[in-house]
Amino acid sequence: MIKQDPCAPAGKADAPRAARRVVAHVDLDAFFTSVEQLLNPALAGQPVVVGGAANQRGVVASASYEARARGVYVPMPLVRAYRVCPEAHFLPGRHSLYSDFSRRVFEVINRFSPTVERASIDEGYLDWTAEQCGTHQPVTARHGAALPVHWPLALAESLRLAVLAETGLSVSVGIGANRLVAKIASKHCKPRGICHVATGAERAFLRPLPLAVVPGIGKRATEVLAANSLVRFADAQDTDDATLARCLGDEWARRLRRIANGEGRVELSPHEAPKGISNESTFRQDCRDLDTVRRTLYRLVEKAAWRLRRAGLVTGSVAVKLRTADFRTRTHTRTLGYHSDCHAELYRVAAQLFEDFAPRHQAIRLIGVQLANLAPATGCQLLLFDSDRRAVNQQVDRLLDRVRAQHGFSGIATAAGLHAARRPVRGG
DNA sequence: TCTGGGGTCCTAGGACCC
DNA sequence: TCTGGGGTCCTAGGACCC
Ligand SMILES: [Mg+2]
Ligand SMILES: [Mg+2]
Question: Domain for residue A192, yes or no?
Answer without folding.
Answer: no
